[in-house]
Every structure is written in C-alpha cells, then in structure tokens.
C-alpha cells in the first residue's frame, strides 16, 4: 500500500503564481487534512475534509482553497502565492473521524511532505 | 502560552539510555497523539491514547487526564531513534493542535 501520496515533493514559485498540491490516499479513509509546518510553530491545520463532499477551514485557511475530488483525493490550491506561504506542507488522512476517537487504530497517516518556496 | 507545551525542546542522549519526553496541555481533549518526524521529514503516528498507557516495542506512552500531562518514554535508546517527537492533542471535531516538537539525538 502506498498510504498517502503527495506531489510534488519540491516546488519554487514566484510571487503571484498559482499551483495545486495533490494528495491521494489508498486506505479508504474518510477524513483528510492539509497542514503546514513552519520553524518554531509546529504543524497548523489549513483545511480539512471530514468526509467526501465536505470541506472546512482550519486554523490558517487564508490564501488557500481545497477540493475533495472524491474519497481518495484532496487537493490544496494556492491561487496567488505569497512569500508567507513558503513552508512545508503535509497531507494526512484518518479512518474513523466520524466514529470518534478511541475506536480501533485511529491514528493519522501523513504524506511525505511538499517543500514550497515562494520568491 | 501555547495550548501544547513540550519539554525538553532538545535532548541528547547516549545509546542505551532511558529517555523521557513530556507534553502538557491546557485544553480539554478527546485524545492525545505522539508522532515521530524523521530527519528526512516524514511523519509517522506512534500512539493515540485517551487514558492510561500504551506500549509498542521500546516505546511507552502514558497520559494523566486529570493533570493534563503525557509522557513518551524510550527504553534502551538507539541512534536510529534520533528524530523529532511531536505531541498533538485532539479536540472537538477531530482537530489536532501540535506542540513544537522535541529534537532527540542519540549518540553511539
């Protein structure tokens, strides 16, 4: 099993350019998440999708949009990149959000990350 | 004050030592997660716990809900344990709030 696959692994953008980060999971998980990781700040939630067809804002959604294309895929789009969006982005998925925590193996599975630099 | 505080921020140990990483939080939670981030950047989920203690190999995680505190222990540490260990608390809506991580270096 591939788990959670993120593409690309590295990207350099110029200010104002747009791009889409792709994420796909093959574990039949209901919930998917996009996080960014910045030095000294820990991981922060950008957007999440509790189930196919739904998306919700997280802690830092400004400047981003998401699409839950189907149960497998959850993409993150930067419409007009800014230097403040330079970060490492992680996609994650989880099986049993809708059933609540503590039911079986409900840990998160993370992608390998995308290192994005906006110049 | 961050909702999730980890200590220490950095930890250097000799191979074989017993290691403890602490996590304190200030909000009501439904579960607590311990994650490991490898030097290459990948993140792996180690434990999810809402009470008591869990053990997997040389790793042990404990949580005290009343004291809002969790610890991650590594027994017989090895250089391959060198990584960043991240505590995250799960609040309503399955949202995670992360600590800043503890950088562990185990020297041979």
Account of the protein in words:
The complex is a heterodimer of chains A (119) and B (108). Chain A is mainly β and 119 residues long. Chain A has strands at 4-7, 10-13, 19-25, 31-38, 42-49, 56-57, 64-68, 74-78, 87-94, 109-110, 114-118. Chain A is built from no helices and 11 strands. In chain A, the strands form 2 sheets. In chain A, strands 2, 4, 5, 6, 9, 10 and 11 form a 7-stranded mixed sheet that branches. In chain A, strands 1-3-8-7 form a 4-stranded antiparallel sheet, with no helix packed on it. With 108 residues, chain B is an all-beta fold. Chain B has no helices and 11 strands. In chain B, the strands form 2 sheets. In chain B, strands 2, 4, 5, 9, 10 and 11 form a 6-stranded mixed sheet that branches. Chain B has a 5-stranded antiparallel sheet with strand order 1-3-8-7-6, with no helix packed on it.
